[in-house]
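Students often ask why inverse folding is considered easier than folding. One informal answer: many sequences map to the same fold, so there is more than one right answer. In these notes we will look at a single instance of the problem. The structure comes first.
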């Protein structure tokens, strides 16, 4: 089964996507992550959105693939006018496909050019987990983020 989420984030905003269940026996894997400017062709923007396993203390545009809490990252550059020499739109996204999680995730947005808002669309594949898989995933998340168990 596929679950989808969509929304819009302003510059510097972080949103929690609620996924956790009481028993934690449903796992998720990101299969699609897309950005779309809120005012295409009107406002120039360079958006960086990231999906994390834990809540972030600060929202930045820096992407670090060695961060074990990072599940996906996306970058979109969109000019105000497509008629200029640099007038092309670019979107790059990376999803760590092997990551299966069973807790809430957090999506962040950092705007490098100004303060434009950006839309996001996420598709998650649901995966039935055994008791052992659920326990291992939950314990791993608690170890990475002690506030999960609080």
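Output (designed amino acids):
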């Amino acid at each position: 089964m596929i679950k989808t989420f969509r929304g819009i984030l302003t510059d510097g905003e972080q949103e929690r996507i609620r996924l956790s269940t009481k028993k934690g026996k449903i796992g998720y894997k990101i299969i699609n992550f897309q950005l779309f400017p809120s005012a295409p062709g009107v406002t120039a923007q360079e958006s960086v959105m990231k999906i994390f396993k834990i809540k972030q203390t600060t929202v930045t545009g820096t992407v670090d693939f060695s961060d074990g809490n990072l599940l996906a990252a996306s970058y979109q550059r969109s000019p105000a006018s497509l008629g200029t020499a640099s007038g092309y739109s670019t979107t790059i996204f990376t999803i760590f496909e092997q990551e299966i999680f069973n807790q809430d995730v957090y999506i962040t947005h950092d705007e490098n050019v100004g303060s434009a808002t950006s839309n996001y669309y996420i598709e998650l594949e649901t995966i039935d987990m055994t008791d052992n898989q659920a326990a291992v995933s939950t314990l791993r998340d608690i170890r990475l983020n002690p506030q999960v168990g609080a």
